Amino acid sequence: MSETYYRQFLHIISRDTDQPGKIERLNKDEISKLVTFIKSLDYNESNNLVSLASFLHYGQMTGGEQFIDAFDVEQAWKLEVVSQLTEKLHSLSSHTGRAYERDKEREWRLQTYQELTNPVKGFDAYFTYQPSMLLFETERFLHELICYMLDSIALIDPKTFTNLCQKEQNPLWSLRWVQRLDNFTSDIILNKEVFEGLPIGHQGILSAYLWDQCLMKKEKECRETTNKLLLFHMQLPRSFFLSMVARILSNITNNHFSTLNHIEKIKKSERQLETLLTLAAKQFVNLPLLTEAEVNQFVDNFYNPVNQEVIWACLTLVKKVENDCTYEYPIKNTRKIRQTIINSYPSYWKTKGNHTRYSFSEDLTINLVEELAIAINACYQEQSFDLLDQFKDIPDLFDLFYLRDAHEYGQLIESKRLLLVHAYLACQLLTIRGEQKEIPKEKWDGFFDFVLHFTELDSKEHSPMDQKIRTAVFTATGSLFAVYGYPDTFNKWLRLIHDPFDYLAIIKSGIELEKKDEIFALIENRFPLYVQLLRSKDLLELGYEIYSEKNFTLAAKILSHIQIKSFNADQMSYWKRLTSTAYLNAAFESKNISTQIQNLKAALQFSRQKVDHSYNPYMKENQAVTVQIIGWLFDRNEASYSELLNAYNLIALQPWKIESGALHSEDYYVSSLILVRLLSASEKPEPYHLEQMEVAIERMSDLPGHQLTQELLRSWYALFTGKDMERTMIMMEQEKIKASKQWLPRALQTFFEEIINGDI
Asked: Could you tell me the superkingdom of the organism this chain comes from (predicted)?
C-alpha cells in the first residue's frame, strides 16, 4: 500500500502514525471503523476504487475472519463494486511484479505455469520450486494493485474470483485465495465450491501450499491442522484426495529418510509422518470400494525424483488401516493396494531413464523390503515362497555367472545389487513364516544353497553404495542360521566371506558366543590383508565396530595399524581417543600383569599424541585419562615418583579453576586418586598435597559406579590424618571392592586388606 493510503488507514483506526509497522491485528472496534469508512467511499472515482481495494486487502490481512464477518453490505453494492474492480483488474493485468526477471526467466516461469495441467503437477511444482526459487510467491511476481483487486473480489464475490482465475490461468491469481488471510485453515479458505471452481492444476498448488504451511507448525497445532486438511480433502473428488495424500506422504517420507537433513529435521519429519499416517488411516476407513483405476492412480503417485521406493509409506498406511478396522470395504481396498504394489516389484527402484539401473537408499530400501514381506505374507500366506520365484525381473544366479564370464560388468553389478535386495526379502519372509512354523524343509535347503552361491560370487567385490543393505542381509541370514541350525552350511558360508563388515553383521545377528569367537579369529587371521586393501577411514570404522562388540584387543590391534596421513584434525583426535580407550579396556580385561603393563603403555602412547588445529572441544587431549594411566603404571612399578608428580601438576586443583567452577566431581575424584599415590609414597608428605586432598575430599560428590572407591578413599585419608574413619560400607560391600581392587592405588589396596583382615 502506498504511504498515502497507509496513513489514511492509520488515521481511520486512530493509531500512532509514527509507527506504521506496528499494525498486525485489528480489534473489533477498529474493524467497525474501517468497514464504515469503506462503505462511504465513492468507488466510481478511479483513485477511490484503488483506495477501496487496498482497504479491503489490508482489512482481511489484519482483521482476518472478524473483518470478513463484519463486512456486510448490500447485494447491489457488491455487484457494482465487483464490476468496477474486474474492469480495473483487466487494465492492470499487463503490469509485472516487483521481482526483477530477465526475459528468459520470465518466459520459463510462464511456460512452467502453463504446464500445470493436473493437481499432481501443480503439487510437485510447488514443492520443487517454491523452497529455492519462490516461483509461487504472489507478492513477488504480481503487482501490488493486482493483489488488492484479487483479494477484494475474493471477499465480495468468490464465484467471480474463480471465473477470473479460469480465464487468466495464472496460478498466482488462484493462490491469492489462501494467502489473503493468515489463518489458512479457516472455513472461509477451505471452501469446497471455490476449490473445485479453480483450474485443476491450481488446485494442486493450493493443496501443496496448505500442507506446506501445516508442516511448519508446532507438533500439537500441526496434528490439529493435518486432521482438518484431511477432512477438507475428503470433501473433494476422491481422485484428488488420493493423489494429494500420496504426494504429501511421499514428500515427508523423503525428508525423513534423507541423509542430508539435520537430525532435528529428521526427528520432526518422523513425528509428522506418524501423525499423517495415523490420521489418514482413519479417513481411509471411510472410503467406499476403490476401482482398479483409483488404486493404480493412488499407488502411482508415490514417487520421488529418482524412483518409487517412497511406496513404503503406502504399505505402512494400508497396514495401519487393516489394524484399525474390520469392515469389508477397507479390507478389500488394502488388499487391492497391496496386490498392486506386489505386482510391480521390483520396479520401485528403477531409475528414470533409458537404461535399466536401480537406485537404493539403504534405510528406506530396508524399511520398504520389510513392509513388502509383511504385505506378501498377508496376501499369499503359505504360497509366499512360490511367489518369490515368479518375479520375472529378478535375475537368476546362473545369469550372474554368465554375465561375469561374458565380462558384462555393468549389468553384473546392477543384477547383484538387485539380487541382494531380493535376498533380504527372502530373509524377511523366512523370518515371518518361520515364526508360524510353516516352512517346508526344501525351502530352507533352497535358501541356504542360494546364500552360499551368492556369497561365493559377490563377497570379493561388491558395490560400497549398498553396505547397509549388505549388513541387513548378512545379519538376517545369521539370525536364521542361529535359530534353525544347518551348522555345516554355516561353516561353509563363513569360509566364503571376505569382507570384514559382513562378518560383523553376522556377529550382531545373535549367534552363540563360540561362533562369535570363531569369526573374530577369521578377522584376525586376515587382518594383514585388510590393512593393505581397506582405506584408513574404513579401517577406523572396522576398529570402532569391533570395539562396540567388546573385543578390545583386536580393535586396538587394527586401530594401531591405521595410516593416518589422510586424516584431518578431528579424525586424528577421534582415532587417538578410540585407540587409547581400546588399549585401556584390553588392559582392564587382562589378569596378567605383564599384559596389563603392555596395554597401559600403548594407551599412554596414543593418549599423549599431539593433534594440532583440532577445533572440536570434545576431541581435545584428555589430560585426566593420561594422568590416570601414569598412576596405574606407577602402581605396577613402571612409572617413577617424579613422573607421577609431573603428571599431577597437569591437573592440579589450582584456586582459579575451583573458583571459576571449571572443575567437576570427576576432576576432584581423579586428583584424589593421584594424591593418594603421592602422599603414601612420600616419607614426608608435602603440605600443598595435603591441602589439595582436603579440597578434593570436600568437593567430590558421589559418582555413579565409583561410590565404593570414594568411600574407601575418604576412610583411608581419615586414618592417614589421624581422624575417625567409617568402615561399615566397606565391610558390607567387600566383594564388589575385591573385583576391582587391582586398579586401586596400592595404598588403598593395602588399606582394604587390613580392614577385612581386622588389622585396623
From this structure: Bacteria
Q: Which three cell numbers stand for residue 328?
A: 469389508
* Grid coordinates given for 75: 447485494
Q: Which of 148, 186, 167 is nearest to 68 (CA)?
A: 186
**Which of 191, 153, 193, 196 lies closest to 173 in space, CA to CA?**
153
Q: How many residues does the chain have?
A: 760
Mean pLDDT by groups of 10 residues along the chain of 760 residues: 63 60 75 83 77 88 87 86 90 75 90 94 95 90 92 94 94 94 88 94 96 91 93 94 96 86 81 93 92 95 91 95 83 94 91 73 92 93 83 83 82 85 91 74 83 79 73 89 82 87 86 86 88 86 92 93 83 88 93 93 85 45 80 91 86 64 70 88 85 81 71 82 72 72 85 77
For 395, counting Cβ atoms within 10 Å of its Cβ (0-12 exposed, 13-18 middle, 19+ buried), the class is middle
Cis omega (within 30 of 0) for bond into 131: no
Q: What is the DSSP letter of 623?
A: H
Closest CA to 473 of 436, 437, 499: 499
DSSP state at residue 98? S
Contact predicate 632/644, CB 8 Å: no
Distance of alpha carbon 356 from alpha carbon 352, whole angstroms: 9
For residue 113, count CB atoms less than 10 angstroms from its CB and return exposed for 0-12, middle for 13-18, buried for 19 or more: buried
With contact defined as beta carbons under 8 Å apart, do 190 and 209 qualify? Answer: no
**DSSP secondary structure letter of residue 191:** -
Q: What is the CA radius of gyration of the chain?
A: 36
Taking every pair of Cα atoms in the chain, the longest distance, rounded to a whole number of angstroms, is: 111
Whether residue 583 contacts residue 559, with contact meaning beta carbons closer than 8 Å, is answered with no
